[in-house]
Amino acid sequence: MPEHKSADQHMQDVDWEGGEDLDEEFRQGDCVEVDLGDADEDVPIESDGDEEIEDANSEGEIGVLKDTDIYSDDDGEPYVDECLGSVSHTQSVLSVAFSPTDPSIMVTGGQDDVAVMWTLSERAGRVTCTQRQRMEGHTDSVVQVAFSHDGKYVATAGYDCTCKIWAADTGSLVHSLEGPSKEIEWILWHPKGHAILAGSNDTMAWMWWAPTGKLMQIFAGHAQSVSAGCWCLGGKLICTGSDDKSVIVWNPRAGTPQQNIKQVHESAIVSMCSHPDAPIVVAGSNDSVVKVLQIETGKVLAVLPGHTDSVECIAFNTPAPGSISLLATASMDGKVLVWEGRSFDLRCTLKEHIDKGGIVKFKWLNAPAFSSWLCTCSTDHTLRLFNALTGECAQTFRGHTDTVLDFDISLRATTGTQNVPSLQVASGSDDCTCRVFQAVLEAPKIGELARAVPAQAPADIEAGQTSAAASTEHTTSISPQTDGSPGSLPV
Length: 491
Fold this sequence. Notes:
Layout: H1 19-28, H2 50-58, H3 67-70, E1 85-88, E2 93-98, E3 105-110, E4 115-123, E5 126-135, E6 142-147, E7 153-158, E8 163-167, E9 173-177, E10 184-189, E11 195-200, E12 204-209, E13 214-220, E14 226-232, E15 237-242, E16 247-251, E17 256-261, E18 269-274, E19 280-285, E20 290-294, E21 299-304, E22 311-316, E23 326-331, E24 336-340, E25 346-350, E26 359-364, E27 373-378, E28 383-387, E29 392-397, E30 404-413, E31 421-429, E32 433-441, H4 458-462, H5 468-471, E33 474-475, E34 488-489
């Protein structure tokens, strides 16, 4: 195993301006617009086969096991629906997003080829979801929905090879972004602007300037599907991962590769994230391994073992000043491994999903007092809220009856409390619903961090072991409420 090096050792100044200047350059149009030529030359659009298998799914697909045949129910407990409100699509809900500027606005995208904008209102402990705009136009599954950083635009990505831009205030179509010849797997807004990046099964990544619909760059260099990607160094660079096992670092202005790191993994790369400050990217693979890369040199800084199945999601937290930087990796093995964000030593293992289901996705809470908290969604039909410093599972959100495919979270002030935020969770599932959950968070007390699980020695990590404190499963009780309001979560 390569020697661990801290993120601080690899933080270097970048010679050219930051993400704001790049965004301004796109706005002024000082870039090359890419001409794709005649539409007749495009590769025919391929369907994901929804129509053909719809009838088969109604009676169960031959040779395909259900999640319930693989994983047991949650300790055999009876069905409980703890959601405060829900909405439905006619097929699986594949993606969910809250507006970053108005958490009462939510967008869902489904396998039924439609995205819908909703307005959420709360009354008497229930959440009512009112359809605001039905965003139609895709001809295949809407696999991702996402708001721009300022909440001005909504982007929807489909298996029909298109990305569409909508006005967030009205839900009306602004532009339909075309170019990819195969399915779009993911989209990412620039963290400070209105450039949008997409990864496609056509082996390329695509970047458009959303306000005008102009195609700004095509990033061609992978040999197979572009399965993961991220903006690096605040939007100054782009990094993409592929089924071809490689990672490429791109100059977004020139569209040229700065590093092409081949054979990073033994199998397809399926997840990726960038360090918030350093020139570091972390990639996860179907081979169950996580690797930390220095993107300016192309060197592997650390190999993080411990998972036994595909690593589906990776992310650094956004620590408050003076608090601990953390990296979490989540896998279909049901584990979340939490690592020190600088030394990459294993800190603890979150084990509540193990033997129940695999983890599809997780998100860190973006609030100073709760920057070490994260939420997961799983094939076990649940979402769970964890304190990653202590390893405790603070709450389980139940109500779905099939795999939870995606979710989003927002923090907002709670009526009648002082500086106590409420966590709102919206989740989409194979059960064709999006369900809304809430919980009131209790701020950490002075001295609480002393209970945090200590970091583990590198020798133990190499051996695939976890400390006794980290491997202990914790469950924090939720104080009951008699008025139907969500419980209070102590740290």
